[in-house]
Structure formats: C-alpha cells, structure tokens
Write a structure and sequence with these properties.
The protein is built from four helices and 13 strands. The protein has about 200 residues and is of the alpha/beta class. The protein is globular and about 50 Å long.
Amino acid sequence: MTNRRAVFRERERMLICSDVHIGKAAHFRKHGIAVPTGVMVGDLERLEFLLEFFKAETLLVAGDLFHASANREIDYFEGWRKRHRGVKFILVKGNHDRLPMTLYERLEIEVHRVLERPPFTFLHDGVCGDVREFCISGHTHPGVLLKGKGRQKIKLPCYRLTEHGLVLPAFSLFTGLTTEAAAGVCYAFTETGIFKVGEKAR
C-alpha cells in the first residue's frame, strides 16, 4: 500500500487503484457547478508518476475509471492513454463505467465485470465474503475521522483491510469520504506517511 492512493504488486509489476472518475469534474461544470479544470489533470499526473516510479507493466482499475457520459475530459484521457501504450490496462467495471465498449476497445482497455487472478478476486463493489479468493475492491471511498483535543477533527482517506479483502481508497481527489464505522483495520495516510488507525469490531 502506498500513501498515493494505490497499491503496487511487485510480483506482477501491477499498479492497482480504484475510483479515478475521469469526466466527473466536467460533468459537474456542465450542470453549473464550478469545479477547477485541473482536478482531473492532477489525478492523471499522479497516476503517471506512480506508473513511472514503480516501472509498472500493468495498470488495474477496480471500477469507476470514468464517471459519466463522454465529455472533454475523456478526450484528454485518450491522449494520456496514447502516451502509455506500453502499459497493459485492465478495468473491472464499476457502476459509473457506462461508456460504449467501442471506446474501451479504442483505448486498448481490457474490461471485466469480475476478475479472478488467484490469490485475488478483483471487483468494484460487493460482499467480499461471497467469493473464494481474497478480494480487492473500491466503490465506498473509505476514510477515517480522527478527533483530537479541543474539538479538532480531520478526515483522511484510508485502505480498509478485513480477513476477506481490501477496500481501496478513491484515487481521485475529487471524491468524498465514507467514515462510518465498518469491520476491518484502517490504514490512513497523509502526504508524508501511512499508518494503522485501529480495528473495528467484527
């Protein structure tokens, strides 16, 4: 696990993330909500840095690569993808990935509903106990709420680990956080590190 919202599996040279939500900012702007155009660009710059830092051969997105219908941000992503043709791209479709298959084919993105690569099963949303393998998923945008003295509070994104699977944080910075108590151990992170927060009752 990294403090950059992604996991790297060294054995397969695979970078794994979830909830990139390409097109979300443009979708909000289309509906009159002012969102800076640099949000998506910044997300892709972080993703590019991770691919180069780890020398990843495969990028696997566990759902919600895209957010809405085609818009200019998806056109920008297409140019980004062309610069990384050497990286195999796998998408496990999420609830927001509704674009036509012809687009995924054009972008050379391998698409699955559920992907089994023992010892893991990759899916976007579901009950990890329902699958035989340890599952890696996204969708819920897990976070933790830390409280200090003097009513200080801070929300941080996290990984949520249980005996059945790992829920990834949302990769895009333009997402909310779900901080409700849930089973598992949380690994929260900041710009400078990653740390275990605690274990909820199973």
